[in-house]
Inverse folding.
Protein backbone atom coordinates (compact mmCIF):
# COMPACT_ATOMS: atom_id res chain seq x y z
CA UNK A 1 0.00 0.00 0.00
CA UNK A 2 3.03 2.28 0.21
CA UNK A 3 3.39 2.73 -3.53
CA UNK A 4 3.32 6.53 -3.54
CA UNK A 5 6.50 7.74 -1.98
CA UNK A 6 5.87 10.21 0.85
CA UNK A 7 7.09 13.77 0.64
CA UNK A 8 9.95 14.65 2.96
CA UNK A 9 9.22 17.78 4.95
CA UNK A 10 10.61 19.82 7.79
CA UNK A 11 8.49 21.10 10.65
CA UNK A 12 8.71 24.84 10.12
CA UNK A 13 9.31 27.15 13.03
CA UNK A 14 5.78 28.46 12.80
CA UNK A 15 5.75 29.87 16.25
CA UNK A 16 5.96 33.57 16.84
CA UNK A 17 8.68 34.94 19.14
CA UNK A 18 7.21 35.49 22.56
CA UNK A 19 6.60 39.02 23.64
CA UNK A 20 5.43 38.09 27.10
CA UNK A 21 7.51 36.64 29.90
CA UNK A 22 4.94 33.99 30.76
CA UNK A 23 6.35 30.51 30.30
CA UNK A 24 3.04 28.75 29.79
CA UNK A 25 1.89 30.06 26.42
CA UNK A 26 3.10 29.32 22.91
CA UNK A 27 2.15 31.46 19.96
CA UNK A 28 1.76 29.75 16.58
CA UNK A 29 0.88 31.07 13.15
CA UNK A 30 -1.24 28.92 10.82
CA UNK A 31 -3.54 29.87 7.94
CA UNK A 32 -2.92 33.55 8.61
CA UNK A 33 -4.04 33.39 12.22
CA UNK A 34 -2.00 33.72 15.37
CA UNK A 35 -2.94 30.87 17.68
CA UNK A 36 -2.11 31.12 21.39
CA UNK A 37 -1.85 27.79 23.15
CA UNK A 38 -1.69 27.39 26.88
CA UNK A 39 0.23 24.28 27.84
CA UNK A 40 0.06 22.59 31.18
CA UNK A 41 2.85 20.61 32.81
CA UNK A 42 0.56 18.29 34.74
CA UNK A 43 -0.76 16.34 31.77
CA UNK A 44 0.77 14.62 28.74
CA UNK A 45 -2.23 15.84 26.79
CA UNK A 46 -1.52 19.46 27.54
CA UNK A 47 1.74 19.90 25.66
CA UNK A 48 2.04 20.55 21.93
CA UNK A 49 3.79 17.50 20.47
CA UNK A 50 5.57 17.46 17.09
CA UNK A 51 2.85 15.42 15.39
CA UNK A 52 0.38 18.25 16.02
CA UNK A 53 2.75 20.74 14.38
CA UNK A 54 3.30 18.39 11.44
CA UNK A 55 -0.42 17.82 10.81
CA UNK A 56 -1.31 21.52 11.27
CA UNK A 57 1.37 22.46 8.76
CA UNK A 58 0.25 19.77 6.31
CA UNK A 59 -3.42 20.75 6.47
CA UNK A 60 -2.47 24.38 5.90
CA UNK A 61 -0.32 23.50 2.85
CA UNK A 62 -2.64 20.91 1.27
CA UNK A 63 -6.04 22.55 1.34
CA UNK A 64 -6.90 21.38 -2.19
CA UNK A 65 -6.13 17.75 -1.42
CA UNK A 66 -7.84 17.84 1.98
CA UNK A 67 -10.53 20.47 1.84
CA UNK A 68 -11.99 20.75 5.34
CA UNK A 69 -14.55 23.45 4.55
CA UNK A 70 -17.95 22.44 5.95
CA UNK A 71 -16.64 18.92 6.59
CA UNK A 72 -17.29 17.07 9.84
CA UNK A 73 -14.01 16.52 11.67
CA UNK A 74 -13.37 14.53 14.83
CA UNK A 75 -10.07 14.81 16.65
CA UNK A 76 -9.22 12.09 19.15
CA UNK A 77 -6.62 12.83 21.82
CA UNK A 78 -6.88 16.53 20.94
CA UNK A 79 -4.55 17.57 23.78
CA UNK A 80 -4.02 21.32 23.69
CA UNK A 81 -6.37 21.71 20.74
CA UNK A 82 -3.92 23.12 18.19
CA UNK A 83 -4.95 20.78 15.35
CA UNK A 84 -8.66 21.25 16.07
CA UNK A 85 -8.21 25.04 16.02
CA UNK A 86 -6.41 24.84 12.65
CA UNK A 87 -9.19 22.58 11.26
CA UNK A 88 -11.75 25.07 12.54
CA UNK A 89 -9.96 27.99 10.85
CA UNK A 90 -10.02 25.90 7.64
CA UNK A 91 -13.82 25.85 7.90
CA UNK A 92 -14.59 22.44 9.41
CA UNK A 93 -17.29 21.46 11.89
CA UNK A 94 -14.89 20.26 14.58
CA UNK A 95 -15.43 17.99 17.56
CA UNK A 96 -12.31 17.89 19.75
CA UNK A 97 -12.15 15.02 22.23
CA UNK A 98 -9.84 13.88 24.99
CA UNK A 99 -9.75 12.51 28.53
CA UNK A 100 -11.76 14.32 31.24
CA UNK A 101 -8.68 15.78 32.95
CA UNK A 102 -7.51 17.45 29.74
CA UNK A 103 -10.85 18.99 28.75
CA UNK A 104 -10.62 22.18 30.80
CA UNK A 105 -7.38 23.33 29.18
CA UNK A 106 -8.55 22.05 25.77
CA UNK A 107 -11.83 24.01 26.00
CA UNK A 108 -9.98 27.11 27.14
CA UNK A 109 -7.58 27.03 24.19
CA UNK A 110 -10.28 26.29 21.64
CA UNK A 111 -12.73 28.96 22.78
CA UNK A 112 -9.98 31.54 23.19
CA UNK A 113 -8.71 31.02 19.63
CA UNK A 114 -12.04 30.68 17.83
CA UNK A 115 -14.43 32.97 19.72
CA UNK A 116 -14.25 36.03 17.47
CA UNK A 117 -14.04 34.23 14.18
CA UNK A 118 -16.71 33.76 11.58
CA UNK A 119 -16.58 29.95 11.57
CA UNK A 120 -18.44 26.89 12.78
CA UNK A 121 -18.29 26.75 16.55
CA UNK A 122 -16.17 23.77 17.62
CA UNK A 123 -17.42 21.31 20.19
CA UNK A 124 -15.33 19.80 23.00
CA UNK A 125 -16.31 16.38 24.32
CA UNK A 126 -14.98 13.65 26.54
CA UNK A 127 -13.88 10.51 24.72
CA UNK A 128 -12.01 7.74 26.45
CA UNK A 129 -10.61 5.44 23.77
CA UNK A 130 -12.65 2.29 23.37
CA UNK A 131 -15.18 3.24 26.05
CA UNK A 132 -18.88 3.95 25.54
CA UNK A 133 -18.42 4.81 21.87
CA UNK A 134 -21.76 3.49 20.62
CA UNK A 135 -23.58 5.18 23.55
CA UNK A 136 -21.84 8.57 23.31
CA UNK A 137 -21.34 8.64 19.54
CA UNK A 138 -24.05 6.42 18.02
CA UNK A 139 -23.15 5.57 14.43
CA UNK A 140 -26.63 6.46 13.21
CA UNK A 141 -26.06 10.13 14.18
CA UNK A 142 -22.32 10.66 14.15
CA UNK A 143 -20.48 10.31 10.86
CA UNK A 144 -17.21 12.10 10.23
CA UNK A 145 -15.48 13.06 6.99
CA UNK A 146 -12.13 13.25 8.75
CA UNK A 147 -10.70 11.62 11.85
CA UNK A 148 -7.56 13.38 13.10
CA UNK A 149 -5.03 11.95 15.54
CA UNK A 150 -1.57 13.24 16.47
CA UNK A 151 0.98 11.66 18.78
CA UNK A 152 -1.62 9.29 20.16
CA UNK A 153 0.82 6.37 20.07
CA UNK A 154 3.58 6.38 22.70
CA UNK A 155 4.39 4.26 25.76
CA UNK A 156 0.91 3.52 27.02
CA UNK A 157 -1.30 0.50 27.45
CA UNK A 158 -4.31 1.89 25.58
CA UNK A 159 -3.15 0.96 22.07
CA UNK A 160 -5.82 -1.70 21.48
CA UNK A 161 -8.64 0.64 22.62
CA UNK A 162 -7.09 3.36 20.43
CA UNK A 163 -7.16 1.07 17.39
CA UNK A 164 -10.74 0.03 18.21
CA UNK A 165 -11.68 3.74 18.37
CA UNK A 166 -10.13 4.40 14.97
CA UNK A 167 -11.97 1.39 13.52
CA UNK A 168 -15.25 2.56 15.10
CA UNK A 169 -15.12 6.06 13.61
CA UNK A 170 -13.63 5.17 10.22
CA UNK A 171 -16.69 4.49 8.11
CA UNK A 172 -16.58 4.26 4.31
CA UNK A 173 -15.80 7.79 3.16
CA UNK A 174 -13.94 8.76 6.33
CA UNK A 175 -10.28 9.76 5.99
CA UNK A 176 -8.04 9.15 9.01
CA UNK A 177 -5.03 11.45 9.19
CA UNK A 178 -2.56 10.30 11.83
CA UNK A 179 0.75 12.04 12.55
CA UNK A 180 3.10 10.54 15.09
CA UNK A 181 6.66 10.74 16.30
CA UNK A 182 8.07 7.22 15.93
CA UNK A 183 10.23 6.41 18.95
CA UNK A 184 9.56 2.85 20.05
CA UNK A 185 9.00 -0.59 18.55
CA UNK A 186 5.42 -0.39 19.86
CA UNK A 187 4.85 2.58 17.50
CA UNK A 188 5.86 0.45 14.51
CA UNK A 189 3.77 -2.48 15.77
CA UNK A 190 0.76 -0.18 15.93
CA UNK A 191 1.48 0.99 12.38
CA UNK A 192 1.59 -2.63 11.20
CA UNK A 193 -1.79 -3.32 12.80
CA UNK A 194 -3.22 -0.19 11.21
CA UNK A 195 -1.92 -1.30 7.79
CA UNK A 196 -3.47 -4.74 8.22
CA UNK A 197 -6.92 -3.19 8.76
CA UNK A 198 -6.98 -0.04 6.59
CA UNK A 199 -5.73 1.11 3.22
CA UNK A 200 -2.76 3.09 4.45
CA UNK A 201 -0.43 5.58 2.76
CA UNK A 202 2.44 7.55 4.22
CA UNK A 203 1.74 11.10 3.02
CA UNK A 204 4.78 12.80 4.52
CA UNK A 205 7.83 12.18 6.65
CA UNK A 206 9.57 14.74 8.82
CA UNK A 207 12.92 12.96 9.36
CA UNK A 208 14.44 15.57 11.69
CA UNK A 209 11.51 15.12 14.05
CA UNK A 210 11.01 11.37 13.40
CA UNK A 211 7.42 12.16 12.49
CA UNK A 212 5.39 10.27 9.91
CA UNK A 213 2.02 11.43 8.63
CA UNK A 214 -0.33 8.71 7.45
CA UNK A 215 -3.64 8.58 5.67
CA UNK A 216 -5.89 5.58 6.25
CA UNK A 217 -9.27 4.64 4.82
CA UNK A 218 -11.56 1.66 5.22
CA UNK A 219 -10.97 -1.23 2.83
CA UNK A 220 -14.02 -1.45 0.63
CA UNK A 221 -14.95 -5.07 0.04
Amino acid sequence: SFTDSPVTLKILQNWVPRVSHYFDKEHYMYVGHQIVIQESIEHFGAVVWPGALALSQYLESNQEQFNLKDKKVLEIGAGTGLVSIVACILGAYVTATDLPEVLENLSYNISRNTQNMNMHKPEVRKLVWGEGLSEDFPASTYRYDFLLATDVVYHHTALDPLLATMVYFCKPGTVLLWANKFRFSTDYEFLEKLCSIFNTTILAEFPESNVKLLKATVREN
Q: What stands out?
A: DSSP finds six helices and ten strands in the chain. Strands lie at 7-8, 25-30, 33-38, 72-76, 93-98, 123-126, 146-150, 175-181, 198-206, 211-218.
